[in-house]
Design a protein that fits this description.
Distance between the termini: 50 Å
Low-confidence stretches: 43-48, 352-357
Number of strands: 10
Structural class: alpha/beta
Radius of gyration: 20 Å
Oligomer: single chain
Mean pLDDT: 92
Largest sheet: 8 strands, parallel
Shape: globular
């Protein structure tokens, strides 16, 4: 049995128990680095020392490879320019590496990668530098160039490349890129992201990542308000059928992609362990009979308002969407399908009496 999933690692005890039961299916674990600075591409306004819990939890799962997430779009310049700016980061990485709990880092900022290489060359030489999904590697030329720039540092080349999510909706181009990778980089494993649920070629993505990074620098998050007033939440609120063009991969279509790639990445760590358990269950079973929105990360907010019956979507859904020419005004496929498989959910008011008592 070949492990096929890359999943987030959280320190929630029940989630770790669950991961231990499905460990043979897990290829990689990715975790946020504990410390005083937020270094990943998700909002973290709290500053908690979880080093002990993280070490204990990762130690229970010896099989999967393990990667620290240092994949924010940017960092405060002081982190990269001050003499001791990366001291705590390097100490944390070194500690996990010494315990055999770190195989590499996932990064987006080449400045950070170069600085880590300069400040801790011996440590860097033991770790893979893995480009994050927001590097948007959708062609072999981009992949080849990125690997060349990694080679300019002391870091090891990655053992796996995560392709841009847009290729999930273009199977011909996906197959072409994969063929080039197999031919020119035969030892390289290839991965796709399954359940992000972002807009297709989202026009807000780069700015959204930057605002997340800014929130982690300033300690104040405005990204939900921006998306609600100006971005994807506003757009999907008006035209929710657009979610079907999002480059997610349904659990039922995973085998179609595994004909091309080696592993599938699942996301949603900010939604917690219960959400991740449900997602991992569905993708391992290759089946989900509930609300499709319950599996998506970025579009999960819609699951409180709409029920998209995943069981009513045909098996050739991925093939159909791969033929999309983007001319939505003259097609109507997504709108008609969405109307057929979706129903609104009743408004619910959360019962907070227990909290008051």
């Amino acid at each position: 049995m070949n492990p096929v999933l890359t999943v987030p690692f959280l320190t929630e005890p029940l989630y770790i128990d669950f991961l231990s039961t499905v460990e043979p299916h897990i290829d990689c674990l990715q975790f946020s680095l504990p410390g005083t600075r937020a270094l990943d591409s998700r909002i973290r306004l709290e500053s908690l020392d979880m080093h002990r819990q993280l070490t204990a939890g990762l130690s229970r799962l010896r099989g999967p490879k393990k990667y620290a997430l240092l994949n924010s779009r940017f960092y405060p310049p002081s982190l990269l320019t001050e003499k001791d700016g990366l001291t705590q980061v390097i100490a944390a990485l070194d500690g996990f590496a010494d315990k055999g709990l770190l195989d590499g880092i996932v990064y987006s900022d080449q400045y950070l990668l170069q600085k880590l290489s300069d400040e801790a060359p011996d440590l860097a030489a033991t770790l893979e530098a893995v480009p994050g999904v927001n590097c948007m590697l959708d062609s072999f030329d981009k992949i080849d160039a990125r690997l060349s720039y990694i080679s300019d540092t002391r870091f090891k080349l990655p053992g796996k490349i995560l392709l841009d999510r847009s290729l999930n909706r273009d199977l011909d181009t996906l197959a072409h890129v994969v063929r080039l990778i197999r031919k020119r980089l035969p030892a390289m494993k290839i991965e796709v992201l399954a359940n992000e649920g972002c807009l297709y070629r989202c026009p807000f993505k780069l700015s959204h990542d930057a605002y997340i990074a800014l929130a982690n620098v300033e300690g104040r998050d405005t990204t939900f308000q921006l998306n609600h007033d100006l971005g994807c939440i506003r757009l999907l609120g008006k035209e929710p059928h657009r979610i079907l063009r999002s480059p997610f991969i349904r659990p039922e279509n995973i085998e179609l992609y595994l004909c091309h790639v080696d592993t599938v990445k699942l996301c949603g760590r900010t939604l917690g362990g219960d959400f991740l358990q449900q997602v991992i269950h569905a993708y391992l079973a290759r089946k989900h009979e509930g609300n499709l929105l319950d599996l998506l990360d970025a579009a999960h907010w819609l699951s409180d308002h709409l029920y998209v019956d995943n069981s009513m979507i045909s098996h050739d859904f991925a093939d159909m969407l791969s033929l999309c020419d983007g001319k939505c005004e003259r097609c109507g496929f997504c709108r008609e399908l969405f109307q057929a498989i979706t129903r609104p959910l009743p408004l619910t008011i959360r019962d907070n009496r227990a909290a008051v008592d």
